[in-house]
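[audit] Reproducing an earlier prediction to check determinism. Same input, same settings, fresh worker. If the tokens differ from the archived copy the diff job will pick it up downstream; this log only records the rerun itself.
[audit] input (296 residues):
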Amino acid sequence: MLLNIPGFAEAASYFWLLLGVGMVNVYVDSLEQAAPSWRRSRRHIVTGVCLALLVVVSWLYIPDKMDSAGLAVAPMSLPLAVFILTADAPLAVTLGRISRYCLRQIRDVSRLPAPGERSGLALIGLFCGTGMLSFATSSLDAIVRLPTGAARSPHNPLTIATPIINAISLCGLAIGLFLLLAGPTLAVRGQRRQAALVRPFWEFLVRRHPEVHLEGSQRGLTRMRMEVHDALSLCYLPRTTPATPEAIVRGIIAGPERPLGPDSAVPAAHLVTVGHLTEADLAMAYNAATEEISCM
């Protein structure tokens, strides 16, 4: 059976991997360009198919069929060099392209990344870079050994380090993809928890100042924050009120608010800004205060 032939699993793996390289390049095009060129996408797919076929054909002409460990130290021949270059060089180019894209996204200050996205992109970019260097080094080694047909020693640092680097790169890529894909989901859960925290304080302020209610399709935590901010601008507290969540919340609860004059009162929103406070800080203080009142 084919599966029992040494090196067949290696050739089959590279066959499917190179087919995937074409689709990966099409996907990267869609990320980099608003309207990717169909001609360019077709070229990526055709190139991937041709490389996948070439890697199988070159494997068939390798004098001695052997597994991946044997191929790494085998005497260099033209079929083996073609096999290595066809398998490794396109992977190095594609991984370098992905690494460059990740670096551009990290440096782009005009966009607000989702939680976990920046870490995910950093890991993907880093380990695509290490994988690129590994495959590029293997390709260069094949070119250097081809004129003499030399074999590589099993104790050669390249023989020992390459599989280790590839394994580490694969693990790093998996972690990076997890952070990239799971980050937005974790962010949504965090927003739900924060919305549940802020809701009692928001409801209290909206009941007191119904004029801050916003009409429209805006929902969730963003709307709560906007309405809380607007309501805090209408809540006046003595100028001597400390800029702490507890003091601000106690003053608001003790209302009603009336401007006592520019010298004796300030909006609660001003104290929030001075104290570098968030809606969550005030909400926790409000929840603690209402709990304390209910227990009395």
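[audit] rerun output stored. Observation attached for the diff report: The two ends are 82 Å apart (CA to CA).
[audit] end
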